[in-house]
Design a protein that fits this description.
8-stranded parallel β-barrel, two-stranded antiparallel sheet, disordered C terminus
Length: 315
Amino acid sequence: MRKNHVRLNCGITMPLIGLGTYSFPNDRNITELAIHNALQIGYRHFDTEKIYGSEPAVGKALNDAMFDGVVEREDIFLTSKLWGSDHHDPVSALKRTLQNLGMEYLDMYLVHWPIKLKPWVNYPVPNEDDFENLDFEVTWAGMEKCLQMGLCRSIGVSNFSSKKIHWLLDFASTPPAVNQVEMHPMWRQEKLRETCGDHKIHVSAYSPLGGPGNAWGSTAVVHNPIIQSIAFKHKATPAQVALQWGLSRGSSVIVKSFNEERMKENMASFDLKLSEEDILEIQKLEQIKIMRGEFLVNETTSPYKTIGDLWDDEI
């Protein structure tokens, strides 16, 4: 297996650090430049979604790089996601994503949230009457069809609790290869990691730094005195400590900075080795789920108080 990769339950390997491409506002030129810089630094795992608006820019940058001989398609791991308004037809949704990207297949296709929205809801903050009842057996059958048709190499989920993982496994012919969830030193997902581990489902961490710089994020992780103290001891940065903590737990991490120096810094987290003492100190940190009420749910109009109500009560 290649260095700094993880082998998934479907047999393929995935780079352990990925570059997320959500940004607001979305700027195509900035995103293309970020992908170009990321490839030069060594990133090979890229994470996008229709609702991010970044699929065309990601695809253009990657296709340009392949044309120029910078990278081969088989060296890239490309992830996108099924938006809530597309649960009725994952195959058609994935075909549109591939058209946006200018690609023949994805490496990973994830169900973004365990919710269904009405077909016309193509905006990130749904209103109360935008939600529909979810028949996830139909959704997952569509995801499995995407896999059978060769439109993707693997399928998975995002924001699924332990209870929802068990529920999915009751009827799935193909188990999810990945569960992408918020995870960082102050939201450690211990029960969920145990559940996924029992079923050989890889846990991938979004917001592994707590989302600093985003409207919904927080600097609580990178500004935490314990994290900063560990960073000082190792002559590293707080971001590197947080990322290496996630990597040391067996998870992959999806980082989002488009700043070239921070991209280099994040990739260098592979070189940091945390001691058992460091891990124990991090284990003592207060748990704070930073993504409560994040951009997906308008808390004044949603039938859920927060996005966490979709699954937090089950963790």
